[in-house]
């Protein structure tokens, strides 16, 4: 359960970074 939560947070962080890069361009 904890591992799944960590993966979700990791995916969320990666998504935020992707959005930042997209908006930066």
Give a written overview of the molecule.
The protein is mainly α and 25 residues long. The chain is built from one helix and no strands. The protein has one helix at 2-24. The chain is rod-shaped and about 35 Å long. It starts with a helix and ends with a helix. 0% of the residues are buried.
Average pLDDT, rounded to a whole number, is 89
Major β-sheet, in short?
none
Number of helices: 1
- Poorly predicted sequence stretches spanning 5 or more consecutive residues: none
Distance between the termini: 37 Å
Helix content: over 70%
Radius of gyration: 11 Å
Q: Helix/strand-derived class?
A: mainly alpha
Beta-strand residue fraction: under 5%
Number of separate strands:
0
- The best one-word shape is rod-shaped
Instruction: Spell the H/E element sequence.
Output: H
Question: Short description, anyone?
Answer:
The protein is mainly α and 25 residues long. The chain is built from 1 helix and no strands.
What's the layout of helices and strands?
Elements: H1 2-24
Write a concise keyword list for the protein shown above.
single chain; 25 residues; mainly alpha; 1 helix; 92% helix
